[in-house]
Amino acid sequence: MPLVDIEYEYVFPEERAAVPCGEAGRLLNDAPRRVDRFMQARLDNPVPAFVPSDFAMVYDALHEVRRRRLATGDLFCEWGSGCGAVACLASILGFNAHGLEVDPDLVEISQQLAADFHLPTQFVQGSFVPEEQQYLADELGDVTWLETHVECGYEELGWEPQDFDLIFAYPWPGEEQVIYDLFEALASNGALLMTYHGLDEMRIRRKVSKRPRR
Questions:
Q1: Which helix (H) or strand (E) holds 98?
Q2: Shortest CA distance to 6 belongs to which of 192, 213, 212?
Q3: pTM for the structure as a whole
Q4: For residue 46, how many other CB atoms are within 10 A of its CB?
Q5: Which domains does the chain have, with CATH numbers?
Q6: pLDDT in tens, 109-155
């Protein structure tokens, strides 16, 4: 089943009529400070491949999905959830949000962030690549955030990949196609994939049974 792009244009903060406020605004201010503290504490032992996305940009895209009712349901999963900010922002917007992350320290930070903001977001240590699709990740060699040598986390989450209505990921350059192939293999028809690509680029794609006629 192919993935079809959904039209979406990011609005820069200086061009917006209003900026996120309330709980979302507080989290957007707080999360980067937590990331900075964590990275400073881990200077001698950095987490491989841990580069946070632009949380404000992702929030804007999540808000657009909500506003336009693009998702078929409320179940959200972040593949490689890092410090947990994106999944927590999804919770604020009303998604039933979850995150899968291989690094236990990042899982702990994520859980603390959710607790401090009184959010029900669930974070689990584990891979988001099931054993059956490990061959897709193996094509890239040793890629930490696609780690498949740790236990897959879906069982602990209590959900299967095809249950999620919206999945978010931040693939590194050169890894995008693996994420697209993985999503196409795992997601149900109609599910959304949101990806951050840096340099002010977000993509929202939907899995469909066939390409629409032009």
A1: strand 96-101
A2: 192
A3: 0.89
A4: 10
A5: 3-42+53-207 (3.40.50.150)
A6: 999 999 999 999 999 999 998 888 776 666 655 554 555 567 899 99
